[in-house]
Write a structure and sequence with these properties.
By secondary structure, the protein is α+β, with helices and mostly antiparallel strands. The chain contains 6 helices and 4 strands; from the N terminus they run ββααββαααα. The relative contact order is 0.08.
């Protein structure tokens, strides 16, 4: 190994050695140090997976947040937010054609149709991930509303 390389073994069925340039290895170590709970191996696996997903779905990138890292649209909302809007629009207007549905969602969200298609394409590839984020958001909103109603009852009688 040269002084500019750093070896990492990535587990699959059999270990796969990966050699990082020293600058990449240093940035990976820095990433791990600020993302508590991630091992070097887990961080490398996550970042490679995210990179491959971004190549497969141009316009999607990953951002950190209170619920963890999640897929988002470049300069736009999270993928789950767009997909939830599409599902909501479909439920409200089941007879709309595809173009009309996309136009309605674009008008209501301000997200361009081409980016809505990026989000729905990502959802089609990773539906469990996005549906879990939608479910978590729905549960959080319901919990917040219940708390708000209880507070209103206490304060207003």
């Amino acid at each position: 190994m040269t002084s500019n390389d750093y070896d990492v073994v990535v587990a699959k069925k059999a270990p796969t050695p990966v050699r990082f340039d020293m600058m990449v290895a240093d940035r990976l170590s820095a990433f791990v140090s600020i993302n508590h709970g991630l091992s070097l191996s887990a961080a490398a696996n996550m970042l490679v997976d995210e990179g491959l997903r971004m190549i497969e779905h141009p316009g999607v990138f990953f951002r950190p947040g209170p619920t963890g890292r999640r897929a988002g649209l470049a300069a736009g909302p999270d993928v789950w937010e767009v997909v939830r809007a599409v599902k909501s629009a479909r439920a409200a207007e089941p007879d709309l054609g595809e173009r009309e549905l996309l136009a309605m969602v674009a008008e209501n969200t301000g997200v361009p149709v081409r980016m809505i298609r990026v989000a729905t394409g990502y959802w089609a590839a990773y539906p469990d991930e996005i549906d879990a984020e939608i479910s978590a958001a729905d549960a959080a909103e319901e919990s917040a509303e219940r708390a708000w109603r209880r507070e209103r009852e206490l304060l207003t009688g």
